[in-house]
Amino acid sequence: MNQSILTRNHVKVRGNGTTPIVFAPGFGCDQSVWDAVVPAFEDEYQLILFDYVGAGNSDLRAYDMNRYSTLDGYAQDVIDICEALDLSKIVFVGHSVGAVIGMLASLRRPELFSQLIMVGPSPCYLNDPPEYYGGFEEDQLLGLIEMMEKNYIGWATVFAATVVNQPDRPEIKEELESRFCSTDPIIARQFAKAAFFSDHRKDLPKVTVPSLILQCSNDVIAPSAVGEYMQKHLPYSTLIQMKANGHCPHMSHPEETVQLIRDYLNAYVI
């Protein structure tokens, strides 16, 4: 067991089962975003939680601007964690960009994974008409990066509200905002560039691991057209439309999130 990798990513292992589930957070978040979901799986599975380098309680000394300039560096970290814990037949549950990071890891090491469960994923955030609607124009994303540079706290407030998209749930917005604000602004901006300007559409047809796509309702970050595109181009995939609003159902609607993950896993003999 490589303790330095486990320390680097603040890896936590819990649960009483043998089949591993790796939970990956989305942009700007740490492993605590899964707190309302993971207890439901503790009795049956081995649960692995981690922080991206630069987020949460990870080892900031391990942050490398070149390594993390693309999502490939984060995907390699996932593989490092799996190898350090000697995992196999992994169920990978990733939120948002975390889902794409898991997908990239599965392309490098498909034998490590049994299922990919993608919560609000997007292979590309930029619109590319007429074939693809990602939800954003380039000037919108450039404006987002510029706002991060000029007024990071203001950006965190606005972006958290956009992501959650539930005015009647201010506590969820505030929880997300506090996570954004706890991340180093320079690292957050670098991660935002790697996430929001990436295009992994061409990687979708290469994926060999069965996958579940959980598409949220009224999701500004990953609109329904994105979920439909992924289901069309991702082999062995299942698309489920959630009742949950916004982009963070694991925080705002954990019961539905748990049930859909459980139903999917119960349909497979792992």
Structure explained in plain terms:
The chain has 270 residues and is of the alpha/beta class. The chain has ten helices and seven strands. The chain has a single domain, classed as Alpha/Beta hydrolase fold, catalytic domain (Rossmann fold), CATH 3.40.50. It is 40% helix and 15% strand. Strands 1-3-2-4-5-6-7 form a seven-stranded mixed beta sheet, with helices on both faces. Strand 6, helix 8 (224-233) and strand 7 (237-245) form a beta-alpha-beta unit. The relative contact order is 0.15.
Short description:
The chain is α/β, with parallel strands linked by helices.
Provide the gyration radius in Å: 17 Å
Extract low-pLDDT stretches. none
Find the structural class using helix and strand composition: alpha/beta
Overall outline: globular
Distance between the termini: 24 Å
CATH structural class? Alpha Beta
Q: What share of the residues lie within helices?
A: 40-55%
Summed up, the helix count is 10
Mean pLDDT: 93
Strand order of the largest sheet: 1-3-2-4-5-6-7
Main sheet? 7 strands, mixed
